[in-house]
């Protein structure tokens, strides 16, 4: 369904522009990139999972990713003709389901990890030459994220059905996208990979816990698909 929506969206945009990808397209927003500062907002989807490292060889914890939702703001500072500095604070809602195969009880085997992140990314954008009404770009940088559902300050642990994570996590991000210049605004779909730089797991109070005892590190990784409007 998401793929169909994306295909239809791009089809409608291309049709509405009357041949924007043709040989002699009508140039929209010709001076838009000369602005020193501009603003926008984004909506999108995310798919996050965890990468686990273990202290000893054991059966892997199984991670099931779900599709989450993104919304946020964009602030863009023009540095040169090809480079921009971007700040994109956003709200990211997601869920990951963890299955522990070594635990026999069905209720204890599953942990639903629901997270609501507020991301604060600082990104460098490199844009290629504009071709008609299209300009592809690469983007990368670092971010910090506040996990509002981390349970970091709760004393109960997995023995009381409480999965705990650190409140703050640092990430690096890398992706690509394209600016599409329409008559009244600039539409920018993008795909970005995000990778945690630090261990996010808070261990259970009991040493040797079947949920956290053998975990050396647990780090978020995943994809953001954002649709930005300027």
Short description, anyone?
It is built from 2 helices and 10 strands.
Description:
With 230 residues, the chain is mostly beta strands. The protein has one domain: Porin, CATH 2.40.160.20. 8% of the residues lie in helices and 53% in strands. It is built from two helices and ten strands, in the order H-E-E-E-E-E-H-E-E-E-E-E.
**Rg from Cα:** 21 Å
Work out the count of structural domains. 1
Number of helices: 2
Cα end-to-end separation: 26 Å
Give structural attributes:
single chain, 230 residues, mainly beta, Porin, 10 strands, elongated
Show the helix and strand layout.
Layout: H1 2-16, E1 37-54, E2 62-65, E3 67-78, E4 83-87, E5 90-99, H2 106-109, E6 110-127, E7 134-147, E8 168-181, E9 186-196, E10 215-229
Antiparallel strand pairs: 1-3, 1-10, 2-5, 3-4, 3-5, 4-6, 5-6, 6-7, 7-8, 8-9, 9-10
